[in-house]
Amino acid sequence: MNAIIGQPVSRVDGPAKVTGHATYAAEFSLPGLAYAAMVLATIPRGHVRSIDRRAAEAAPGVLAVMTHEDAPRLPYKQIAQRPQVDAQSGEQLHVLQDDQVRFNGEPVAVVVAETLEQAVHAAELVRVEYARSPAVTIFDAKQGRPPSESNAKAGRVPELGRGDAEGAMAGAPVRVEARYVHPREHHNAIEPHVTIAHWEGENLTLYDKTQWVDNDRKEIAHVFGLEEGNIRVVSPFVGGAFGSALRTWPHVTLAVMAAKRVGRPVRLELTRRQLYMAVGFRPHSEQHLRLGADKDGRLVALQHDVVQQVGRYEEYAETALSPTSHLYQCDNLHARYRLVEMDTNSPCPMRAPGVVTGVLGLEMAMDELAVELGMDPLELRLRNYAEQDQQKGLPWSSKELRACYETAAERFGWARRKPEPRSMREGGTLTGYGMATAIYHSDRSGGSASVALTGNGMAVVRSAASDMGPGTYTSMTQVAAETLGLPVDHVRFELGDTNLPYAPVHGGSITMASLGNAVVAACQAVQGKLASLVRAAQQGPFAGLAEDAVVAREGGLGRADGTGPAVPYAELLRQHNLGWVEAEGSAQPGEETKKYSSAAFGAIFVEVRVDELLGTVRVPRMVGAYDVGRVINPKTARSQCIGGMVGGLGMALEERAEWDARFGKVMNANLAEYLVPVNADVPSLEAIFVPNDDRDFNPLGVKGLAEVAICGVAPAIANAVWHATGRRIRELPITPERLLG
Ligand code: MOS
Questions:
Q1: Structural domain count, the chain
Q2: Ligand 1, from 351, 440, 444, 651: best to mutate by most atoms within 8 Å of Cβ?
């Protein structure tokens, strides 16, 4: 049988998606379903003075109006600290538990009605009077404070470094120093967040948009003081999430409370506008870098301060210092991470959380250093290539970044770049070439899967995983098909249900490195189980053989010595009167983190064209080369990478939450005014995978693929804009007014 891992298999769930047969959370139809709508606070801080609910209660179809005055008091138990990879904050916003308003957009009431329209209408009739308190709505980097101890323990450290950064900086012959600003960004997934809550006695079922059904269950169990066993979470399809669905948000709690109140299943779907207040976002960041180098471009000192905004009612922190700690060789380094508390909803992970921010500053500063040195930016990276993770003092489990640089530079035509800015002009159009490095740490976590071999020749593989878009359904199907020796269309992968074997978070690019190995283990377990059944039988081709005499071969079992034909699984099941045979397998991280540091790498090269008079920036092409370890499916992997490029383009040129400090509110909370790239913005995107297979990181050899692809894109574009125009725009996005200003 030909290898299935490594083949560009089309999405196995593609037909269901394009024909509308894929059921997303909002689409589960339950008898008696009622609809909820939220009333959100309109002040940034203060308390509710009064709520007049009479008009809402009298409106047609209304079943209930709930406010802090009559909502049940919930226990909101704390979730114990979890391992770093899986750590997500438990819900800290105690929704409808008191009269306090902590941010503009905090829910102050929920209305339930027979139809969505009736609920939305009635929610508008709820009259709320507020008493406003002074609020912190302006980001002031000087107010930064270190993250808490629990965040530090989970790797979001306040400081890190080595050597004597200050001393070495003072003696460095070449120095650059700069400050970079990146605004608050929003996920803007196509599918809005939505929950259907359905109580049956003491049992609760949630149909939810989530990247992690087990965490959803755990959080709601803690909020309500329920046993996890009484809660089931179902989430078979997710229409994009990028980190916003790693945890529950207040609307989930509201849906559960509302369903209890009205004694019917309740659906609560956020509007597009509410997505800017009722779930998280990428926090506003400001960073300050100082780079010191010798005359040959070797870094002798590196200082990096990152300051981000954080909500006041819970602390969300990121690993923003991680790229700086190990991307380049540098003996003297100091990095610092600070949080500025503001009266806002809490930020949350958004595609390469923290890392994308750290890489932005570092890779723009490296470009500035290259200019100062009069050195090619790619050459500068090569001179500072980190042969090991200097911060951890560990070798890389694998690193093919040099191959990434070479491959992408060659494909892009980097050699054609003229070093001087503004030197590649055609009429009124200035062309610029820019590049940057990408890195994202590789993690893995424990997970399980089950495999059932059935009499009709199918294998059904199950795990409580998620597929928010990268293609988990497809890539796991490939892993199982190859391990079992079955064709892809004889394997069905099922996910998104807490009734299935435990899966870790679908985030942090860990899904394949974690769960892929569990799927392999489960396939091997079911093969072993079938082999023992047929060896123990009275008759049949393998009856009475020793344990090591029967092995999996060609979609069935065969003799280890190669004699005789392989007998297909289905044939064996028939011969032995077995309807099916099922087994579970799991995989846990090993000792690899003690021996190695692991990361996915990339090199991204972009061309920009700037209209000198209008200040508009176009990006005709981007070429990225990536070392992500082994690639399970080059087709879905490419989708991940070009998706990351598009996200990075949005970050560089378009995306910005327009924040009105008077109200502590995002003013462009819609897809008409919050700009994201469209097809016309992204003509040519090329993603190349350099060969690698990282068995020192995990048995499947994958390193994780998703987040690395957005890292480095925005700085590469900003660097290209400098090359085109001679203007260094240090605050994103690079808009025409900034470029002309
Ligand atoms: Mo991602 S931000 O790990 O969903």
A1: 3
A2: 351
